[in-house]
Amino acid sequence: MQEKGTISIHTENIFPIIKKFLYSDNEIFLRELVSNAVDATQKIKRLATLGQYSGDLGDTTVEVSFDEKKKTITISDKGLGMTAEEIKKYINQVAFSGAEEFVEKFKDAKDANEIIGKFGLGFYSAFMVADKVEISTLSYQDGAEPARWTCDGTTEFEITEGDRKERGTDVILYINKDSEEFVDKFKIQGILDKYAKFLPVPIKFGTKTESVEDGEDKEGKKKWKSVEVDNIINTTEPIWTKSPNDLKDEDYLKFYKELYPMSEDPLFWIHLNVDYPFNLTGVLYFPKVKNEFELQRNKIKLFSRQVFITDEVKDIVPEFLMLLHGVIDSPDIPLNVSRSFLQADSNVKKINNYITKKVADKLAELFKKDRESYQSKWDDIGLFVKYGMISEEKFYEKGKDFALLKNTNGEYFTFQEYEDKVKALQTDKNDQTIYLYATDVDQQDAFIQSANKKDYDVLVMDSPIDSHFIQNLEAKLEKTQLKRVDADVVDKLIQKEDAQANLLTEEQSKEVKELFEKAIGDQSYTVEVEGLSPEEMPVTITMEEFMRRMKEMAATGGGGMGFYGAMPDAYKVAINGNHPVVDKIIKAKTEKTKMKLAKQAFDLAKLSQGLLTGKDLTSFVQRSVDLL
To answer: Any keyword ATP-binding (predicted)?
Structure first.
């Protein structure tokens, strides 16, 4: 048997395109060829189950080997094998899917989808690294003759009689000079670890040394010896392929450590398992996110029938859930010919919605089942819950029942609970309920204490996206405003009908205003004299709520906020006309003393806001010593 011919393609220049540009990463050739070997192996197993093959299956391990001297890589399987006619049909007709015919033949068989494999372009990825490719194969069919196919990277091929004695296929790659880096034990091992670690058929790559017990010594201690064993690189039944009922917490934690060896244990997890209207399995873990917003991304791995595809899953997983870790496996996610990039498809949207719903349901279940435990995890999971509520309307509707607000006393409240807590006392003269919040509890302590003196409650909003979350809450909550506790003096933040009167005369107020403006000498500070409680600070420095919020949103990437981020800081200086210190300044005998006291009071206010640095801080310390 000998035959030469031309590979059937529709465009003459498609072959060099396949060879150089089809795949985003040339290491994918090994993934494709090993996947094909696994497909062929699963098919023969399926035929045996269906009674279509009565021979001895034997050892069905797929083997990857290499020859450093000959510069070859070989992928061997004991699967279906091919006849010369099947080679012509499946290999020489680029992009023909042998699986289509196979599934049609056994379309009534249970779980036939699990053994669908694609031939064609996946096989031709071999030419990204090889000058020549050889196939040596023997079909499982009775009376089949072994066949050999060779191609040198052009459209010319040759089929001759083969010498294979056992059912299955060897694919031998003669690696080109530019790709000799792949003829290396550690390189191949790394690629297999990345793409084939969870394939459903054992993959052997050489051998490895293991220590085994070798009896006992004279003192009764165990002896060990080193032996060479097959290096099986994969776990054929990862936990996402099993029923949750068959798994324990230790199994999930062990698998998590296998995926992310250096990570802390996750908080909890969701086992995904759906077969209608699409097929999807997987396990998603909730890591300890805290405020490491960007560092946690791209931790979800996408598989297709246990073949690793990518960790770029933004089209499948909602943006806010990119902070999760874990595995998703679905044969229904459409991929382009290289399996590396997702295509737009209705299934992707359905899967996206399903994952969102499962996460929301899990959080609601945890909240209802054990609120105390849920609250203990809130500081870790709150970031992505808030992110989800901002970005997904459906998630907000579910999330408002299990999202929590935390106050400076470390207490947690649902949205409804918090409204009930503060509505009576923190409603202003315009019938707006005011939620006060702090972004830095330590730095804003003076303002928090001032609010607490009036029995006002203060929330903690210190995550990277809280400026956006606050905007979202104000849009959703009826007659409610959120104000940062240091955005103004507390009586201005929650204005009541019985506002404090200013005890200074109009002339005194004008004098104080001019005196402080001169002492400050900086136009970015706007001075106002107000009637406040004598218990408040003599001077308070604040940034107006709207401007501060816009700046914070600009700093965290808020769309369209760049204008505010570029604006210089502008502060309001509130002089408490009812404070004894202001009265002392007015009654000072000399202008110099008045200026010195005003400057000291202003610098004290700057110090409380963390605005006093450098020479100004040194001058303040020296002035304090002089005044003592």
So the answer is: yes
Among 477, 499, 521, the domain boundary falls at 499
| Secondary element (H or E) of residue 216 | strand 203-216
What residues make up the domain containing 350? 239-373
What distance in Å separates the CA atoms of residue 325 and residue 269, rounded to the nearest whole number? 9
Q: Which tokens in the block code for residue 538?
A: 């003599």
Integer Cα distance of 609 and 616 in angstroms: 14
Whether residue 392 is contained in a domain is answered as: no
Classify residue 117: in a domain, yes or no: yes
Dihedral pair phi/psi, residue 8, rounded to 5°: -80, 110
Number of domains, the chain: 4
Nearest to 500 by CA among 514, 490, 509, 486: 490
CA 481 vs CA 249, 387, 423: distances in Å: 43, 20, 11
Which residues, 6 or more positions from 535, have their beta carbon under 8 angstroms from its beta carbon?
Answer: 453
Give the separation between CA 621 and CA 603, rounded to whole angstroms: 10
Per-residue model confidence as pLDDT tens digits over 429-480: 999 999 999 999 998 898 899 899 999 999 999 888 888 899 899 999 999 9
244 in Cβ contact with 273 (< 8 Å): yes
Count of other CB atoms within 10 angstroms of residue 240? 23
Domain at 96, CATH number: 3.30.565.10
Amino acid residing at 45: K
pLDDT tens readout for residues 133-163? 999 999 999 999 999 999 887 778 899 999 9
* Whole-Å CA distances, 608 to 24, 442, 444, 486: 55, 10, 8, 10
